[in-house]
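Researcher: Here's a chain I'd like modeled. Treat it as a single chain, no partners, no ligands.
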Amino acid sequence: MKLPSLAPVLVVGVLAGLVGGAPAPKPRQTEPDEKTVEAYKKLGATCFKTKAGRCGKRLPGFRFKQCDDTKLMLLPPVDVPFALHLDNTEVTDDQG
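Model: Modeled as a single isolated chain. Structure tokens:
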């Protein structure tokens, strides 16, 4: 007794997976969006890239030459990992 071939079933299954499957994931964003960059620049920041760390990746960053606790509270959220350079500023660790 000869069994029917499964080849047509496999082809249909693969095609169904391609047509009705989940959409491909979007590439992971690694840079802040332009609106965020402009908001930081408006508050006096310059943009930079960190040196590559142990993982070999460089992060986007914002550097302030003048910043205090009040300005720090105005900074908008950033949707990607980033660096914030605050050396020689008036930012404190006061929480109230």
